[in-house]
């Protein structure tokens, strides 16, 4: 019998005492707009709108203003260094990237785009590198297990990206043209508005760069991406609403695979929905969606096509019971690999379906709030899973809320792990990885600033790893302990945010640190409005990590400084300048290897990221 120890380390939870020195402090200035920005409404944490302090979760929001100020090249640029978030990449500009939440794997967190999940069923991970940040208005990062709400893979958390919806008023156009280092060019245009109950947003973008080498002494590796977005909704008499969403990005990315190689990709989500208030207390919503992740690769020694089409039907019902709220729902989804193959070999199984029912209670007892959730999944490939969570929040006073939670989740074995075509490289008898997480947190929320501290422990059983013959098996256990401190403030035209992350991701079988995870991270963003001008800077730092499970390949830590400036030089017109990696730091977060056919040895090399880079853009629109 296995003995499970759920008690997080005293040293980690001891950090919870740090902010108590400021417990009694409160800024009484009347800054309503700052309060809205610093305590935003979020929907990902609880399937229902809640302010950040009411969500009983560790949540961060990157809003439209921050996205505009930073004008990022990649969506991973704004995620890097956020609380509990770690990003690795095999080079810059459309190169394979992984996003880790709280030390869990890149295939153990969920990416949603307007509620629609997007990922590859073959790898289990999302293709973050192919998402154009200009298509999105905001991002919510929810850390901690959400398996009882979103099903498989929500072990480390959920990141949801939101596209814009039209706002009431005349049609609003926006146009952006820019370029810079590495022969980079980008263009985008959008039109949005609302009239007569109809909201609309249309957008298109193009990004093209010659790129830079992904290894020392290599050739430039280019990247291009063309994306289009359509979002429409109409509110009927009586409050019912119908809508559609369509987002499609396609392009190509060059990389190195013992020689020149190239990925042609497609990223797509499409959905139709209908929502109706059936009674004064009961709202029902039906969503039909399809997500597509496709990667067609040509390399010197192989070719492959991996495509995933995930079709989902979801019925969600929200019941308002006084101060309480209940969410009930059912979901059916199917993963289809289509024509996926590698070097002409196809998968033994090419589709699987999943049936699920879920329920959540959001109970408000004045100072005490409770969230209870439960979800049952029945998957054709790996069987049944039951997940649940319980969160308690207590309002210590008007400015401070303490919270405690427990939740379970699971990671589904991927098609690669179950059915990869090469003999001996897959295992159809794999079980899902299962996890349980304990968390304690406290948040201070004031008129012009906030802070949030959380400490947690996650234990993962049946971790999937490769055995001596390189076949995936359920053998390992992992324990991840960590703490996160975030803070933000807005005053006198200043905007400041800060995040500190500590993670201890341990393989319990070997005692080693899980591969490619840093244990310490820092991010600090500061921006200042100066009339028609704005200035800003970001500092991101992480300590070392290991590229391999044996902890033999050490990758050094790094610190990055980014600068930015904006100028509104005429009504509706503005210009932005960003200087990335100002100190021209050479750093790597992942390592690859070449095979020497003479010595039969692997020769490692670092995937290098871009050095100093400058980008200028001109924008028209509000």
List keywords for this structure.
mainly beta, 22-stranded antiparallel beta barrel, 37 strands, 5% helix, globular
Measure the end-to-end span.
Answer: 63 Å
Tell me how many strands there are. 37
Structural class: mainly beta
**Which word captures the global form?**
globular
Mean pLDDT score: 91
Count, helices:
6
Low-pLDDT runs: 1-36
Q: Which value, in Å, is the CA radius of gyration?
A: 24 Å
> Level of helix content?
under 10%
Beta content comes to: over 45%
Largest sheet: 22 strands, antiparallel, barrel
Description:
The chain contains six helices and 37 strands. The chain has 622 residues and is mostly beta strands. Strand 15 and strand 16 form a beta hairpin.
Question: What is shown here, in short?
Answer:
The protein is mostly beta strands and 622 residues long. It is globular.
Detail the topology: elements first, then pairings.
Layout: H1 10-13, H2 32-38, E1 41-42, E2 50-51, E3 58-62, H3 64-70, H4 75-79, E4 85-89, E5 97-101, E6 110-113, E7 116-117, E8 138-143, H5 147-150, E9 157-162, E10 169-180, E11 184-195, E12 198-212, E13 221-235, E14 241-256, E15 260-277, E16 282-298, E17 303-321, E18 324-336, E19 341-342, E20 345-346, E21 351-365, E22 368-379, E23 383-397, E24 400-411, H6 415-419, E25 433-445, E26 449-466, E27 472-491, E28 494-507, E29 520-530, E30 533-542, E31 545-546, E32 554-555, E33 558-570, E34 573-580, E35 588-596, E36 601-608, E37 613-620
Parallel strand pairs: 6-9
Antiparallel strand pairs: 1-2, 3-8, 4-5, 6-7, 8-9, 10-11, 10-37, 11-12, 12-13, 13-14, 14-15, 15-16, 16-17, 17-18, 17-19, 18-21, 19-20, 21-22, 22-23, 23-24, 24-25, 25-26, 26-27, 27-28, 28-29, 29-30, 30-33, 31-32, 33-34, 34-37, 35-36
């Amino acid at each position: 019998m296995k003995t499970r120890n759920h008690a997080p380390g005293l040293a980690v939870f001891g950090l919870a005492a740090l902010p108590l020195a400021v417990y009694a402090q409160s800024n009484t200035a009347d800054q309503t707009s700052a309060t809205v920005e610093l305590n935003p409404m979020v929907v990902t944490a609880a399937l229902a709108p809640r302010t950040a302090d009411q969500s009983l979760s560790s949540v961060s929001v990157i809003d439209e203003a921050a996205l505009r100020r930073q004008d990022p090249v990649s969506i991973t640029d704004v995620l890097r260094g956020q609380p509990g978030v770690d990003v690795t990449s095999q080079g810059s500009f459309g190169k394979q990237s992984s996003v880790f939440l709280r030390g869990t794997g890149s295939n153990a967190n969920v990416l949603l785009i307007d509620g629609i999940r997007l990922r590859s069923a073959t790898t289990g991970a999302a293709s973050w590198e192919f998402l154009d940040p200009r298509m999105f208005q905001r991002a919510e990062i929810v850390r901690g297990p959400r398996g009882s709400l979103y099903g498989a893979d929500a072990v480390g958390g959920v990141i949801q990206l939101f596209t814009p919806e039209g706002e009431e008023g005349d049609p609003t156009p926006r146009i952006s043209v820019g370029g810079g280092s590495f022969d980079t060019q980008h263009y985008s245009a959008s039109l949005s508005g609302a009239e007569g109950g109809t909201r609309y947003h249309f957008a298109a973008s193009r990004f093209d760069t010659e790129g830079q080498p992904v290894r020392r002494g290599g050739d430039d590796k280019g990247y291009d991406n063309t994306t289009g977005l359509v979002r429409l909704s109409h509110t009927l008499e009586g409050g019912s609403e119908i809508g559609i969403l369509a987002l499609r990005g396609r392009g190509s990315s060059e990389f190195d695979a013992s020689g020149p190689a190239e990925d042609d990709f497609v990223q797509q989500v499409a959905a139709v929905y209908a929502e109706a208030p059936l009674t004064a207390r009961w709202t029902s919503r039906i969503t039909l969606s399809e997500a597509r992740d496709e990667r067609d690769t040509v390399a010197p020694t192989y070719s492959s096509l991996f495509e995933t089409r995930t079709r989902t039907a979801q019925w969600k019902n929200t019941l308002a019971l006084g101060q309480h709220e209940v969410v009930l729902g059912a979901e059916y989804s199917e993963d289809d690999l289509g024509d996926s193959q590698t070097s002409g070999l196809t998968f033994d199984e090419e589709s699987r379906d999943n049936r699920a029912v879920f329920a959540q209670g959001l109970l408000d007892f004045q100072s005490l709030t409770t969230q209870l959730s439960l979800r049952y999944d029945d998957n054709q490939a790996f069987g049944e899973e039951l997940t649940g969570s319980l969160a308690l929040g207590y309002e210590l006073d008007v400015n401070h809320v303490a919270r405690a939670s427990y939740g379970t989740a699971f990671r589904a074995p991927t098609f690669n792990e179950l059915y990869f075509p090469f003999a001996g490289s897959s295992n159809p008898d794999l079980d899902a990885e299962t996890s349980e997480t304990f968390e304690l947190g406290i948040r201070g929320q004031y008129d012009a600033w906030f802070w949030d501290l959380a400490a947690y422990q996650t234990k993962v059983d049946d971790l999937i790893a490769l055995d001596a013959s390189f076949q995936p098996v359920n053998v390992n256990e992992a324990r991840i302990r960590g703490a996160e401190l975030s803070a933000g403030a807005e005053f006198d035209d200043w905007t400041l945010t800060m995040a500190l992350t500590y993670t201890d991701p341990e393989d319990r079988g070997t005692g080693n640190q899980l591969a490619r995870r840093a244990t310490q991270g820092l991010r600090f963003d500061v921006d200042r409005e100066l009339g028609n001008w704005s200035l800003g800077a970001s500092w991101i730092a992480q300590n070392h990590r290991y590229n391999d499970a044996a902890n033999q390949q050490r990758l050094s830590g790094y610190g990055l400084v980014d600068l930015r400036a904006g100028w509104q030089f005429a009504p509706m017109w503005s210009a932005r300048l960003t200087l990335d990696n100002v100190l021209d730091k050479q750093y790597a977060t992942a390592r690859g290897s070449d095979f020497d056919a003479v010595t039969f040895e692997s020769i490692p090399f670092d995937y290098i990221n871009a050095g100093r880079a400058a980008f200028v853009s001109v924008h028209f629109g509000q």
